[in-house]
UniProtKB/TrEMBL annotation:
Keywords: Cytoplasm, Decarboxylase, Lyase, Polyamine biosynthesis, Pyridoxal phosphate. It catalyses: L-ornithine + H(+) = putrescine + CO2. Pathway: Amine and polyamine biosynthesis; putrescine biosynthesis via L-ornithine pathway; putrescine from L-ornithine: step 1/1. This is Ornithine decarboxylase. It is found in: Cytoplasm. One of its GO terms (biological process) is putrescine biosynthetic process from arginine, via ornithine. Signal peptide: none annotated. The modification N6-(pyridoxal phosphate)lysine is found at K112. InterPro entries: Ala_racemase/Decarboxylase_C, De-COase2_CS, De-COase2_N, De-COase2_pyr-phos_BS, Orn/DAP/Arg_de-COase, Orn_de-COase, PLP-binding_barrel. It comes from Podospora australis. One of its GO terms (cellular component) is cytoplasm. One of its GO terms (molecular function) is ornithine decarboxylase activity. Its EC number is 4.1.1.17. Its main location: cytoplasm.
Length: 472
C-alpha cells in the first residue's frame, strides 16, 4: 500500500464549488445507490470510462486473497486476525449522493466516526471540510495540509490547552452552548468564529446528544448578549439532531429554531453568516427522505438569496458502508439438545457457539456504543469462499444450522449475535464477514484482554474518479 502521508503530497485538493458546478451524471438503481460507474461531466462532452469490476467483485477478491493465504493450522499468532476491506469508491459515491440531494450544503466530515487515513485523504481531495473535537483529530487533518478554514472544532465544551493549540494553528471555527465556555473562549481565543449550538429534539435518534449538549431557546438570547459583552465573534448557529436520526421532522424543527436564533443575533448586532446542520444522516435509503425534508426547510428559512452559507457534519453517512470486516472462527462449542442425544453422534439439531477473534471490546464496539446490530455472513467454510453467494447469507426460516456468535474476551457480555442460521456447518479456521462496519467501530475498539485493535485494512476502489484523486 502507498503510505497516505506520501499521497498527501501528490493530491491537489479540488475546490468544492468547482466540483459542485460540474454536472454529475449518475445512474441510480432501485435502492437509491449507484451501481454504474459515474462520470463527471466536464464541459459539453463526457467520456464513458471502461466499466471495471464491480464493487462486490473488488471487495470479494481482496477478502479471498487474504483468507485463502492463511492456514490456521500453521500460521504465526495474529496472522488470522480480523481485518477490514475498505472500498473508497463507496465514499466517493456517497459524496455524489450528498451533492445530488443537498447541493447547497457543504459537508464537514465528522472525523470521530472513522479517522481512517485513506478515507480522510479522499474526502480532503473531494474538498470536504472536517468536524474535529480534539487536538489529535485536528492535528491529523492539518497534517494532510488541509487549510485551517476547512476545520470546525465542533465541541461545545473544549479543553483549555486545546483552545490555546487551535488559536496557534488558526483553526478559528468552533461551537459553544453555555456561558462558562464563552468566558473560556474570551480568555484563550477571543478572535474565534463562534457557532451557537442549539438544542434539538433527538428522541428518534440512535445516539441522543441533547442531554449533554445544546443551548435551549430560552437561553440563546442571554448567551448572545454575553458574547456581545465579551466582544466575541459569533458567526453562526449549529445543531445536531442526534447520531443515527430517523425522524426528518427533527431537521425541520431545528432549522426553524436556528432561524429564530439568527433573528435574535441580529438584535444583538450580529450578522450571522453560516448555518451548520450537524450530522445524524444515515447511509441507508432513509437519507433521500431526510435530505428532502431538510432541503425544503433550508429553502424556506435560509433561501439561496439570503446568502447564508450552509454546512453539515455527516459522519456515518460517508463511512459506514465503505468498510467490510472479516473475522476468524477461533473456537466452536457444540450444543446438543439433551433430548436428541441418543448414540453420541451430532444430530441435525445440534447448534453451535462460535467464538471469533473480534467482539464488542474490539471493532464490534458499535454494538455497545452505537446501538448497531451487525449481520454475520459466511466468508469461508469447509475450504470454500462463499462471499456474496446465497450460501453466505443467514436464513430466515428454521432450516440450516443455528449459531450464536461470541467475541474472544473472557467477558460474558462479549456477544455479537444471539442466534443466526446458516446453510453450512462452520468450524474452527472458517471466516465470517460483516458489511457496513465503517462507522463507530474501529475508532472505539479497545485492547481489553490483550486482543489487538490495530487491524489491517486492505483498500480497494470501485470508482475510477476516486482512484484518480488518490493517485491509485
Ligand atoms: C458525532 C457527531 C457528528 C457525526 O454524527 P453522525 O451520526 O455520524 O453523522 C457530527 N457532529 C457532531 C457535533 C458530533 O458529535
Amino acid at each position: 500500500m502507498v503510505m497516505p502521508t506520501l499521497l498527501a503530497d501528490r493530491i491537489t485538493p479540488l475546490d468544492y464549488t468547482e466540483l459542485t458546478n460540474n454536472h454529475v451524471f449518475l445512474k441510480s438503481c432501485s435502492n437509491g445507490y449507484f451501481q454504474q460507474h459515474n462520470t463527471i461531466h466536464h464541459g459539453e462532452e463526457y467520456h464513458h470510462h471502461h466499466v471495471g469490476p464491480s464493487a462486490k467483485e473488488l471487495i470479494g477478491n481482496a477478502l479471498r486473497k487474504r483468507v485463502e493465504n492463511i492456514d490456521h493450522e500453521d500460521c504465526e499468532p495474529g496472522e488470522e486476525d480480523t481485518f477490514f476491506v475498505a472500498d473508497l469508491g463507496e465514499v466517493y459515491r456517497q459524496h455524489l449522493r450528498w451533492k445530488r440531494n443537498l447541493p447547497r450544503v457543504k459537508p464537514f466530515y465528522a472525523v470521530k466516526c472513522n479517522p481512517d487515513p485513506m478515507l480522510l485523504e479522499l474526502l480532503s481531495a473531494l474538498g470536504t471540510g472536517f468536524d474535529c473535537a480534539s487536538k489529535a483529530e485536528i492535528e491529523q487533518v492539518l497534517r494532510m495540509r488541509v487549510d485551517p478554514s476547512r476545520i470546525i472544532y465542533a465541541h461545545p465544551c473544549k479543553t483549555n490547552s486545546y483552545l490555546r493549540y487551535v488559536a496557534n494553528q488558526n483553526v478559528r471555527q468552533m461551537t459553544f452552548d453555555n456561558a462558562d465556555e464563552l468566558r473560556k473562549i474570551a480568555r484563550f481565543f477571543p478572535n474565534a468564529e463562534l457557532f451557537l449550538r442549539i438544542l434539538t429534539d433527538d428522541t428518534s435518534s440512535l445516539c441522543r446528544l441533547s442531554m449533554k449538549f445544546g443551548a435551549s431557546l430560552d437561553s440563546t438570547d442571554s448567551l448572545l448578549a454575553l458574547a456581545r459583552e465579551l466582544g466575541l465573534n459569533v458567526v453562526g448557529v449549529s445543531f445536531h439532531v442526534g447520531s443515527g436520526a430517523s425522524d426528518p421532522i427533527a431537521f425541520y424543527k431545528a432549522v426553524q429554531d436556528a432561524h429564530v436564533v439568527f433573528q435574535q443575533a441580529a438584535v444583538h448586532g450580529y450578522s450571522l453568516k453560516t448555518l451548520d446542520v450537524g450530522g445524524g444522516f444515515c447511509a441507508d435509503n432513509t437519507f433521500e427522505q431526510m435530505a428532502g425534508v431538510l432541503g425544503a426547510a433550508l429553502d424556506e428559512y435560509f433561501p439561496a438569496h439570503s446568502g447564508i452559507n450552509l454546512i453539515a457534519e455527516p459522519g456515518r453517512f460517508y463511512a459506514s458502508a465503505a468498510f467490510t470486516l472479516a473475522t476468524n472462527v477461533i473456537a466452536r462449542r457444540t450444543i446438543q439438545d439433551s433430548e436428541l442425544i441418543n448414540n453420541g453422534t451430532t444430530t441435525p439439531d445440534a447448534s453451535y457457539m462460535l467464538y471469533v477473534n473480534d467482539g464488542v471490546y474490539g471493532n464490534f464496539s458499535s454494538i455497545m456504543f452505537d446501538h448497531q446490530n451487525p449481520i454475520a455472513k459466511v466468508l469461508r467454510a469447509g475450504g470454500q469462499t462463499l462471499y456474496n453467494t446465497p450460501a453466505a447469507e443467514g436464513m430466515d426460516d428454521e432450516s440450516g444450522v443455528e449459531y450464536s456468535i461470541w467475541g474472544p474476551t473472557c467477558d460474558g457480555i462479549d456477544r455479537i449475535t444471539l442466534s443466526i442460521r446458516f446453510p453450512v456447518v462452520l468450524d474452527v479456521g472458517d471466516w465470517l464477514y460483516f458489511e457496513d462496519m465503517g462507522a463507530y467501530t474501529k475508532c472505539s475498539a479497545t485492547t481489553f484482554n490483550g486482543f489487538p485493535n490495530n487491524h489491517h485494512t486492505t483498500y480497494v476502489c470501485s470508482e475510477p474518479g476516486a482512484r484518480a484523486l488518490l493517485g491509485m
